[in-house]
Amino acid sequence: MASNLSLMQLKILIMMCSIALPSDSSAQNVPQFGDREQLLPQPPNIVVILADDIGVGDISFYRNRFSKRKPVVSTANIDALAQQGVWFADAHSATALCAPTRYAVMTGKNNYRSYAPWGVWGSFQPNAISAEEPTLGNVLKMQGYNTGFIGK
């Protein structure tokens, strides 16, 4: 399955995985005694939060950091994740719709260049991602991660 990836797709998937890793490896808890498996460092947790129509001022971590103004809504849990992990100050989407963005995050492909369906995908339409196509979840699963997708 992974052999079907082009070099560019593989680079994008590796980049997506690496940017989701925490920047401080000392945060991993490794027991001092026990079985060999317990002594091996555990892979870091990867959490990707993808939200539609969100601005830099909508998450209190960004609002405090960039505008120095009090947030309208406190997002304490997201703020804690941002302080412990990797965060981005500049992001752009090739499309203004949610489905092509999710397609790009999951496959590492730009939907316009891969001729994937675009626009809003309905529940009763064929799946835009074939079962054989590698996705971020599949690649992480091959590395021993438990994966899940919640949302649309």
TrEMBL record:
PROSITE patterns: SULFATASE_1. Gene3D superfamilies: Alkaline Phosphatase, subunit A. Coiled coil: none annotated. This is Sulfatase N-terminal domain-containing protein. It holds the Pfam family Sulfatase. Residues 44-152 form the Sulfatase N-terminal domain. InterPro entries: Alkaline_phosphatase_core_sf (IPR017850), Sulfatase (IPR050738), Sulfatase_CS (IPR024607), Sulfatase_N (IPR000917). Keywords: Calcium, Hydrolase, Metal-binding, Signal. Belongs to the sulfatase family. GO terms for molecular function: arylsulfatase activity; metal ion binding. Residues 1-27 form the signal peptide.
